[in-house]
Amino acid sequence: MNAQEKITLTILNKITESAESIKQQWFNPEGTETRHFVIDELLEPELCAQIYNAFPRDGNGFFDRESFREKKKTSADLSSYDKVLSDITYALQDKRVVDLLSELVGFAEIDPDPNLYAGGLSMMFPGDFLNPHIDNSHDGDRLRYRRLNLLYYVSPEWRVENGGNLELWDKDKTIPKTIAALTNRLAVMETNKTSWHSVSPVVANCPRCCVSNYYFSKQSPDHTEYFHVTSFTGRPDESIKRFVGTADNALRNFVSKVLKTGRGKSLINKRVKND
Description:
By secondary structure, this protein is of the alpha+beta class.
C-alpha cells in the first residue's frame, strides 16, 4: 500500500465516522446561508506536521497575488515539492472520497480537478488577506461549474487569534461567520453565485498553510446557465473597495467573456496523478 492510499483510507474512515456531524452542519448552516462543514483531526498529527514541513518556509517558487482584492502566495505546481503534498491533494480527489462526500451533501455527478485550476497550495504571511468574494463559476475550460471548495489547514498550533481564518458572509455581506483555520482541520463549503467568503488578515508571525481542492459538475448549482469570474468586494468598512470592486468585477467579466480568458489558466499542476 503506497502513501497516497494510506492517506485516502484515513480520510475515508474519518469522513465515515463524522457522517452524522457532516450532515447536521451542512443542512443547518448557522450565521450564513452558505452550506459548509468542518472535520477536525483529519489525519494523524505526525502526518499533518509532515505536510506542513513540505511547504517552503518563505513561499519560494509560489506565485504572488497582490492587489486591493487579495495578498497571498499560491502554487498549483506540485512537481517542485515533497511528494506528500501531491499525496494529500490526490487523496482528497480520490473517487471514493469524492463519492462519499457527494452523497453526504446530496450532490450528484461531482468530479475533482487534477489540474488544480485555482486550487493547490496556499501560503499567507503576516498582513496577507483575501477580501470577500465569490469564486470563479467554472473550471479552466468552462465546461463544469464549481460546486465544492475543500480547504485543509496544516500550520501548527494555529489559533483563531492568528487570523487567516475562513469567513462566510451573510447575504448582505455585512456580518461574517468565522471558521478558524485550526491545525489539521478540513473545511468544506459550497460555491455558487451567493457564497461570499473571505480570509481574515494574518497577524501571526508564521505562515498559514493550506491545501485546497475544488469539485465540479456539469450541472449548475441552481440549474441555470451562468458565468462569472472571481468577483471581489470590500469589507463593510471599506466603502471605496466596494465601489471599485463593482467596476472591477464588471470589467473583468466582460473581458473574460469576450476574450474567453481565465485568471491563472497557465498556473496549473504539472505533477501527474499517482506518479
